[in-house]
Specification:
The chain is of the alpha+beta class. The chain has one domain: Roll (Nuclear Transport Factor 2, Chain: A), CATH 3.10.450.50. It is 39% helix and 34% strand. The protein contains six helices and seven strands; from the N terminus they run βααββαββββααα. The protein starts with a strand and ends with a helix.
Length: 164
């Protein structure tokens, strides 16, 4: 049975706490703590990335955290094997200087108390409309391989030079 966070309940599933720890570490800019929530061979996927392995996931969170993202989260629920949560990331998209509010629903699977699989779902078109002017927003929002290619390049550049 899934358990939720409640001010009326002391009993919270450890995997619920794991999701809270992940979201809070992103909010607080602590990529290493975020990465410690994942199994060594974890998988992460969202509208921009498909990453395998804790190290690659940590690099992505390092890049995200370096962007001073404002994070709020709620609706966290988990059991021994699965979990979900909702979070909102607010930031300025570096390429265009435009403000973005990304509303995200996460789904998790757990193994041994660590995140094995993490899938974030949000509207790519809504994100792109905020991040880019028309008509580029339409192309980036609708063409997933283009979006993932650009994100992959950005991550590779960040890994080479985090200050760039």
């Amino acid at each position: 049975m899934a358990e939720t966070i409640s001010s009326f309940s002391e009993k919270v599933h450890p995997n619920t706490r794991r999701i809270e720890e992940l979201y809070a570490s992103i909010r607080d800019g602590k990529a290493e703590v975020a990465a410690s929530c994942y199994a060594e061979d974890a998988h992460f996927e969202d509208i921009a990335f498909r990453l395998d392995g804790r190290e690659r996931i940590q690099q992505m969170w390092r890049m995200v955290c370096s962007r001073k993202v404002q994070v709020t989260f709620d609706s966290i629920v988990a059991d021994d094997h699965r979990g979900s949560g909702h979070w909102v990331a607010r930031y300025t998209f570096r390429d265009t200087g435009r403000p973005v509010v990304n509303d995200i629903t996460s789904e998790f699977t757990f193994q041994g108390g660590l995140i094995q699989d993490h899938r974030d779902r949000s509207s790519a078109l809504t994100w792109a409309r905020q991040a880019f002017p028309f008509p580029k927003s339409l192309a980036v929002g609708l063409i997933g391989p283009l979006r993932r290619y650009k994100a992959g390049r950005k991550l590779a550049d960040f890994i080479k030079d985090p200050k760039a």
